[in-house]
């Protein structure tokens, strides 16, 4: 058991906080009665309000009267009105104060608890100071403790994301993102609610220049637009396509073409949008020659889009090499040199780099001057690829069953039978 003590005020708020690491749900087990805890909090705030004015019990007496009338919610509401005083106190005591407030609030029922959450959020996020990280921690604790109040948890999550961005604390945000989708599913979040969260996460990650993570959440955000929903921004869709091309280590981009906002670029009145889609399609499934033709036709596009030609050339060469590897078990050096438009003496360097990027699993036969490919990145994975995978797995299963049958035939005389899959 832990005791949170407020020195100097002769106040003790006693209890223990249990946090389940798997479910991330917090439970506060109190020792004092609810009324006693409310009055202890009221005493604390009264003492903070009356520093240098000994004997002034006005605030405490008002709260005590409400407690006598069984109006604990009203007391908690008054306490939150004075929470700025607590937030200027010692950090340990600040956390303890809010912990007990939330624990008491939960006992008043979901609807009542949800009513006070906006005021708690305002108190914790209304100011950015040297306790900002502590404020964010308390906000996260509150989110964990509100496990049975979906509406409150949604508002808390929205504000955790926002405040984490404002104080540039993405560590907590990155930890939260692992559970966001399951949480939204759990509360049966609407499309609008889901979209708002995805967009908020994306914008915070973008502000911190976390390009790969930003792209991931941008795809989630754009995927919320389905059917005849045209409320998306074409500029945002174009930006997502450019960002995907720009990320050096992102080689599979075919999923973007399935997104409604990306598809809508084709019909945009903005010529830049249509060009963006065309270039994206080149990086999805075409080769270096197609890229160079595009640049010759649109010499200013890269500059206006914020893309770097050398980076794009490197990426499209890797992708062209992936296409060769996917269609040939043995790829001659000469074919690689021609496709990538490089000297044959540079082929091995490109293959080694492709292997390090996990684009190829291959070996080089320097005598035969061929690259023997074991596996290559699939740039496009659609129904055709799923069919091929299914056929491969079926063939593999048939071979395994045949092997087990053979083994059983030879081992039955020993009374041992191998079960089949």
Q: How would you characterize this protein structure?
A:
By secondary structure, this protein is mostly helical. Helices cover 63% and strands 8% of the residues. Among the domains are: 1-123 and 132-142 and 149-156, no CATH class; 389-414. It contains 20 helices and 6 strands. The strands form 2 sheets. A 3-stranded antiparallel beta sheet has the order 1-2-3. A 3-stranded antiparallel beta sheet has the order 4-6-5. Helix 1 runs parallel beside helix 3. It is elongated, with a radius of gyration of 31 Å. The two termini are 52 Å apart.
The number of E-state strands comes to 6
Task: Name the structural class.
Answer: mainly alpha
Q: State the major sheet.
A: 3 strands, antiparallel
Beta-strand residue fraction: 5-15%
In terms of topology, how is this protein built?
Blueprint: E1 2-6, E2 11-19, E3 26-30, H1 34-49, H2 58-68, H3 72-81, H4 83-87, H5 91-106, H6 110-125, H7 132-145, H8 150-166, H9 170-186, H10 191-207, H11 211-222, H12 234-246, H13 260-263, H14 271-285, H15 288-297, H16 301-305, H17 309-327, E4 330-332, H18 333-340, H19 347-356, E5 360-365, E6 370-376, H20 383-411
Antiparallel strand pairs: 1-2, 2-3, 4-6, 5-6
Helix pairs in contact: 1-2, 1-3, 1-5, 2-3, 3-6, 5-7, 6-7, 6-8, 7-8, 8-9, 8-10, 9-10, 10-11, 11-12, 12-14
Short structural summary:
This protein has 421 residues and is mostly helical.
Keywords:
single chain, 421 residues, 3-stranded antiparallel beta sheet, 63% helix
